[in-house]
From TrEMBL:
Annotated protein name in UniProt: dCMP deaminase
GO molecular function, one term: zinc ion binding
Family: Belongs to the cytidine and deoxycytidylate deaminase family.
Pfam family, one: dCMP_cyt_deam_1
Record Gene3D superfamilies: Cytidine Deaminase, domain 2
Catalytic residues (positions): E88
GO cellular component terms, A-Z: cytoplasm
Keywords, ordered alphabetically: Hydrolase, Metal-binding, Zinc
Binding positions for Zn(2+) per the UniProt entry: H86, C114, C117
Example GO biological process: pyrimidine nucleotide metabolic process
The keyword Metal-binding is assigned to this record: yes
Cofactors that this protein relies on: Zn(2+)
Amino acid sequence: MNNKHITESSSASSPLLEGRSKSAVDYRYLRMARIWAENSYCKRRQVGALVVKDKMIISDGYNGTPSGFENVCEDEEGITKPYVLHAEANAITKLARSGNNSEGSTLYVTASPCIECAKLIIQAGIRRVVYAEKYRLTDGIDLLTRAGVEVEYKSLEEDNDPTLDSI
Ligand SMILES: [Zn+2]
C-alpha cells in the first residue's frame, strides 16, 4: 500500500527530470557530432554523425570518399564528387563491419538527413534521429517520420543550448 504511493509520486516528477537530462545529453552528442565533422576533408560542407545505443557511441561518421580513394570530395570545378558518402551512410556502413547492432539506436547528425540516408536509417533499425541544421528539402525527414522514426531538430546556436547556461 505504501509502495503505491511511492510509485505515484516518483512517476509524477521523473518524466520532467528525464526530459531535461535527455535534452542535455542530446545537445552534448550533437556537439560531439559537430566536432567529429571536423575530420571531414570536404571543403563545401562538413557533416558529422554518431550512432548511440544504450549510452554508448557504437559508430561514427563524417562525409567523405570511400576507403582507398583520394581524400578530396570536390572536382576541379568545386562540385562534390558523386561517390562521396554522407556522414550518416558512413556511420551506418561502418556498423556493417563491426559487431554492433543499430536496432533501436539514436543517430545524431549535424545536418538534416537526405532521402538516401533516410532509407539507410530506416533499414538500420535506428529509432530516433536528432539533427542540428535544417535543409530546404525535407523529403528525408518526411520519409523518416512516415516510417515511424522519431525525429527531433535541435539548434546548436548557443542561445538555444540549455547545457551552455552555466558557462
Ligand atoms: Zn545523406
